[in-house]
Amino acid sequence: MAPAIAVDKVNGHIYVVWQGGDGPYPYFSEYYGSGWTPAKRVSSTTGFAPRIATGYDGSIHIAWISPAGDRVRYTRFSSNAWESAVDLPIIPDNIVTPDTGRAKVDLAVDRANRVHLMWRQANSLRYSLGSAGIWTAADQVGDTANTAAGSDVSSSASIHIDPVGNVHTLWREAMNGTSIDPTKQALFYRRRTNKGWQMAESMVPGKGNLGNNLASLAGRDMPKLVTDSQGRLHAFWSQKFTQAVTANEQEVDILHLIRKITSSTN
Fold first, then answer.
1. Which of 115, 164, 112 is nearest to 136 (CA)?
2. Distance between alpha carbon 247 and the CA centroid of its chain, in Å?
Protein backbone atom coordinates (compact mmCIF):
# COMPACT_ATOMS: atom_id res chain seq x y z
CA MET A 1 0.00 0.00 0.00
CA ALA A 2 2.81 2.48 0.96
CA PRO A 3 0.42 5.29 2.02
CA ALA A 4 1.37 8.95 2.36
CA ILE A 5 -0.62 11.90 3.69
CA ALA A 6 -0.74 15.69 3.20
CA VAL A 7 -2.96 18.59 4.28
CA ASP A 8 -4.29 21.19 1.85
CA LYS A 9 -2.83 24.61 2.71
CA VAL A 10 -5.92 26.42 1.41
CA ASN A 11 -8.98 24.51 2.62
CA GLY A 12 -7.52 22.15 5.25
CA HIS A 13 -8.68 18.98 3.51
CA ILE A 14 -6.63 15.82 4.05
CA TYR A 15 -5.20 13.89 1.10
CA VAL A 16 -3.91 10.33 1.04
CA VAL A 17 -2.06 8.54 -1.76
CA TRP A 18 -1.02 4.89 -2.01
CA GLN A 19 -0.01 2.23 -4.52
CA GLY A 20 -2.77 -0.16 -5.56
CA GLY A 21 -4.07 -2.42 -8.28
CA ASP A 22 -2.06 -4.77 -10.46
CA GLY A 23 0.20 -2.03 -11.87
CA PRO A 24 0.58 -0.94 -9.23
CA TYR A 25 -0.82 2.54 -9.81
CA PRO A 26 -0.96 5.68 -7.65
CA TYR A 27 -4.37 6.13 -5.99
CA PHE A 28 -5.76 9.21 -4.25
CA SER A 29 -8.55 10.03 -1.80
CA GLU A 30 -9.63 13.25 -0.08
CA TYR A 31 -11.17 13.80 3.36
CA TYR A 32 -13.39 16.90 3.10
CA GLY A 33 -14.62 17.16 6.68
CA SER A 34 -17.40 14.59 6.83
CA GLY A 35 -16.11 11.69 4.78
CA TRP A 36 -13.68 10.39 2.18
CA THR A 37 -14.07 10.65 -1.58
CA PRO A 38 -13.97 7.37 -3.55
CA ALA A 39 -10.46 6.18 -4.35
CA LYS A 40 -9.29 7.56 -7.70
CA ARG A 41 -6.42 6.34 -9.84
CA VAL A 42 -4.54 9.53 -10.66
CA SER A 43 -2.44 8.06 -13.47
CA SER A 44 -2.22 5.02 -15.70
CA THR A 45 1.57 5.21 -15.34
CA THR A 46 2.67 2.43 -13.00
CA GLY A 47 5.04 2.65 -10.05
CA PHE A 48 5.70 2.31 -6.35
CA ALA A 49 5.61 4.34 -3.13
CA PRO A 50 3.84 7.58 -4.18
CA ARG A 51 4.52 10.65 -2.08
CA ILE A 52 2.35 13.77 -1.89
CA ALA A 53 2.78 17.48 -1.11
CA THR A 54 0.48 20.50 -1.40
CA GLY A 55 1.11 24.01 -2.69
CA TYR A 56 0.00 27.37 -1.33
CA ASP A 57 -2.10 27.89 -4.47
CA GLY A 58 -4.26 24.80 -3.89
CA SER A 59 -2.17 22.57 -6.14
CA ILE A 60 -1.40 18.93 -5.26
CA HIS A 61 1.85 17.24 -6.25
CA ILE A 62 2.57 13.50 -6.36
CA ALA A 63 5.85 11.73 -7.16
CA TRP A 64 6.47 8.00 -7.36
CA ILE A 65 9.01 5.46 -8.59
CA SER A 66 8.85 3.43 -11.79
CA PRO A 67 8.60 -0.39 -11.42
CA ALA A 68 12.20 -0.81 -12.62
CA GLY A 69 13.39 1.76 -10.07
CA ASP A 70 15.04 3.83 -12.80
CA ARG A 71 12.69 6.84 -13.06
CA VAL A 72 10.88 9.30 -10.81
CA ARG A 73 7.36 9.99 -12.08
CA TYR A 74 5.40 13.13 -11.29
CA THR A 75 1.92 14.59 -11.67
CA ARG A 76 0.16 17.71 -10.43
CA PHE A 77 -3.47 18.56 -9.68
CA SER A 78 -4.17 22.10 -10.83
CA SER A 79 -7.23 23.90 -12.25
CA ASN A 80 -9.48 21.04 -11.05
CA ALA A 81 -7.72 18.32 -13.04
CA TRP A 82 -4.80 15.92 -12.83
CA GLU A 83 -2.12 16.61 -15.39
CA SER A 84 -0.61 13.76 -17.42
CA ALA A 85 2.20 12.06 -15.53
CA VAL A 86 5.74 12.70 -16.75
CA ASP A 87 9.09 11.04 -16.14
CA LEU A 88 11.33 13.67 -14.57
CA PRO A 89 14.71 14.34 -16.23
CA ILE A 90 16.57 12.49 -13.46
CA ILE A 91 17.75 8.90 -13.23
CA PRO A 92 17.40 7.50 -9.69
CA ASP A 93 19.28 4.21 -10.38
CA ASN A 94 17.50 1.46 -8.42
CA ILE A 95 15.99 3.61 -5.70
CA VAL A 96 13.38 0.95 -4.95
CA THR A 97 12.83 -2.73 -5.63
CA PRO A 98 9.38 -4.13 -6.47
CA ASP A 99 9.41 -6.53 -3.51
CA THR A 100 9.65 -3.75 -0.92
CA GLY A 101 7.94 -0.68 -2.37
CA ARG A 102 9.50 1.41 0.40
CA ALA A 103 9.59 5.17 -0.06
CA LYS A 104 12.94 6.43 -1.25
CA VAL A 105 11.73 9.64 -2.82
CA ASP A 106 10.15 12.62 -1.04
CA LEU A 107 8.94 16.07 -2.02
CA ALA A 108 7.87 19.38 -0.49
CA VAL A 109 6.46 22.67 -1.84
CA ASP A 110 7.60 26.15 -0.78
CA ARG A 111 5.61 29.40 -0.57
CA ALA A 112 6.48 30.20 -4.19
CA ASN A 113 4.87 26.84 -5.11
CA ARG A 114 8.18 25.39 -6.29
CA VAL A 115 8.65 21.64 -5.83
CA HIS A 116 11.68 20.36 -3.89
CA LEU A 117 12.51 16.72 -4.56
CA MET A 118 14.87 14.25 -2.81
CA TRP A 119 15.83 10.77 -4.08
CA ARG A 120 18.59 8.18 -3.92
CA GLN A 121 20.82 7.89 -6.97
CA ALA A 122 23.47 5.14 -7.00
CA ASN A 123 25.54 5.73 -3.84
CA SER A 124 24.28 9.18 -2.94
CA LEU A 125 21.20 11.25 -2.17
CA ARG A 126 20.23 13.88 -4.70
CA TYR A 127 18.10 17.05 -4.67
CA SER A 128 16.39 19.00 -7.45
CA LEU A 129 14.11 22.05 -7.54
CA GLY A 130 11.21 22.20 -10.00
CA SER A 131 9.32 25.28 -11.13
CA ALA A 132 6.95 25.66 -14.10
CA GLY A 133 8.04 22.29 -15.45
CA ILE A 134 11.76 23.10 -15.35
CA TRP A 135 14.03 21.15 -12.98
CA THR A 136 17.46 22.23 -11.78
CA ALA A 137 20.55 20.06 -12.10
CA ALA A 138 20.75 17.59 -9.24
CA ASP A 139 22.74 18.47 -6.10
CA GLN A 140 24.49 15.67 -4.23
CA VAL A 141 23.27 15.91 -0.65
CA GLY A 142 24.49 12.71 1.04
CA ASP A 143 27.23 10.37 -0.13
CA THR A 144 26.73 6.69 0.68
CA ALA A 145 29.88 5.37 -0.97
CA ASN A 146 30.95 3.49 2.18
CA THR A 147 27.81 1.36 2.35
CA ALA A 148 27.34 -2.14 1.02
CA ALA A 149 26.46 -2.23 -2.66
CA GLY A 150 22.79 -2.81 -3.33
CA SER A 151 21.61 -2.02 0.20
CA ASP A 152 18.74 0.34 0.96
CA VAL A 153 20.69 2.36 3.53
CA SER A 154 21.26 6.06 2.93
CA SER A 155 17.67 6.23 1.78
CA SER A 156 14.23 6.96 3.24
CA ALA A 157 15.09 10.66 2.95
CA SER A 158 12.55 13.14 4.32
CA ILE A 159 12.43 16.73 3.07
CA HIS A 160 10.74 19.74 4.67
CA ILE A 161 10.52 23.48 3.92
CA ASP A 162 10.32 25.76 6.98
CA PRO A 163 8.40 29.10 7.06
CA VAL A 164 11.64 31.02 6.41
CA GLY A 165 12.29 29.06 3.23
CA ASN A 166 15.14 26.82 4.36
CA VAL A 167 15.20 23.24 3.06
CA HIS A 168 15.71 20.55 5.71
CA THR A 169 16.40 16.89 5.03
CA LEU A 170 16.87 13.86 7.26
CA TRP A 171 18.00 10.41 6.10
CA ARG A 172 19.36 7.07 7.26
CA GLU A 173 22.93 6.08 6.49
CA ALA A 174 25.08 3.05 7.27
CA MET A 175 28.42 3.69 9.00
CA ASN A 176 29.85 0.34 7.99
CA GLY A 177 31.79 -0.12 4.78
CA THR A 178 31.48 -3.90 4.55
CA SER A 179 27.99 -4.95 5.63
CA ILE A 180 24.55 -3.66 6.61
CA ASP A 181 24.93 -3.71 10.38
CA PRO A 182 21.99 -2.18 12.31
CA THR A 183 24.36 -1.20 15.12
CA LYS A 184 26.30 0.95 12.64
CA GLN A 185 23.40 3.03 11.33
CA ALA A 186 22.85 6.73 11.94
CA LEU A 187 20.44 9.49 10.95
CA PHE A 188 21.97 12.43 9.15
CA TYR A 189 20.55 15.95 8.88
CA ARG A 190 21.38 18.74 6.45
CA ARG A 191 19.97 22.19 5.75
CA ARG A 192 19.95 24.26 2.56
CA THR A 193 19.70 28.05 2.83
CA ASN A 194 19.89 30.75 0.16
CA LYS A 195 23.66 30.30 0.31
CA GLY A 196 23.54 26.58 -0.45
CA TRP A 197 23.88 23.35 1.51
CA GLN A 198 25.41 23.41 4.99
CA MET A 199 27.50 20.56 6.38
CA ALA A 200 25.71 17.28 7.14
CA GLU A 201 25.33 16.44 10.82
CA SER A 202 24.60 13.16 12.60
CA MET A 203 21.71 13.16 15.03
CA VAL A 204 21.84 11.97 18.65
CA PRO A 205 18.42 11.20 20.20
CA GLY A 206 17.63 12.56 23.64
CA LYS A 207 20.41 15.14 23.88
CA GLY A 208 18.75 18.11 22.20
CA ASN A 209 21.68 18.66 19.85
CA LEU A 210 23.49 16.98 17.00
CA GLY A 211 26.36 14.50 17.13
CA ASN A 212 26.97 10.78 16.79
CA ASN A 213 26.37 7.81 19.09
CA LEU A 214 26.25 4.33 17.64
CA ALA A 215 26.99 2.33 20.79
CA SER A 216 23.49 1.80 22.17
CA LEU A 217 21.00 2.49 19.39
CA ALA A 218 20.34 0.59 16.19
CA GLY A 219 17.92 0.25 13.32
CA ARG A 220 16.96 3.87 12.64
CA ASP A 221 14.31 4.18 9.94
CA MET A 222 11.40 6.18 8.48
CA PRO A 223 12.57 9.70 9.43
CA LYS A 224 10.12 12.60 9.16
CA LEU A 225 10.44 16.37 9.60
CA VAL A 226 7.75 18.98 10.45
CA THR A 227 7.70 22.59 11.69
CA ASP A 228 5.46 23.98 14.45
CA SER A 229 3.90 27.43 14.92
CA GLN A 230 6.79 28.51 17.17
CA GLY A 231 9.33 28.03 14.40
CA ARG A 232 10.82 24.80 15.76
CA LEU A 233 11.86 21.84 13.63
CA HIS A 234 10.66 18.42 14.86
CA ALA A 235 12.38 15.21 13.76
CA PHE A 236 10.66 11.82 14.22
CA TRP A 237 11.96 8.34 13.42
CA SER A 238 11.49 4.71 14.37
CA GLN A 239 14.20 3.14 16.51
CA LYS A 240 14.94 -0.56 16.98
CA PHE A 241 16.82 -1.13 20.20
CA THR A 242 19.28 -3.97 20.63
CA GLN A 243 17.27 -5.89 23.22
CA ALA A 244 15.58 -8.65 21.20
CA VAL A 245 12.64 -10.43 22.84
CA THR A 246 12.93 -13.32 20.39
CA ALA A 247 14.93 -13.93 17.25
CA ASN A 248 12.16 -12.23 15.25
CA GLU A 249 11.14 -9.53 17.70
CA GLN A 250 12.78 -6.32 18.91
CA GLU A 251 11.77 -3.35 21.02
CA VAL A 252 10.80 -0.51 18.67
CA ASP A 253 10.03 3.07 19.70
CA ILE A 254 9.27 6.36 17.96
CA LEU A 255 11.86 8.99 18.90
CA HIS A 256 11.47 12.77 18.74
CA LEU A 257 14.01 15.60 18.65
CA ILE A 258 13.32 19.37 18.58
CA ARG A 259 15.58 21.98 17.04
CA LYS A 260 15.07 25.75 16.96
CA ILE A 261 15.12 27.22 13.45
CA THR A 262 17.07 30.44 13.04
CA SER A 263 15.14 33.42 11.70
CA SER A 264 17.67 33.98 8.92
CA THR A 265 18.24 31.95 5.78
CA ASN A 266 22.01 32.57 5.99
1. 115
2. 30
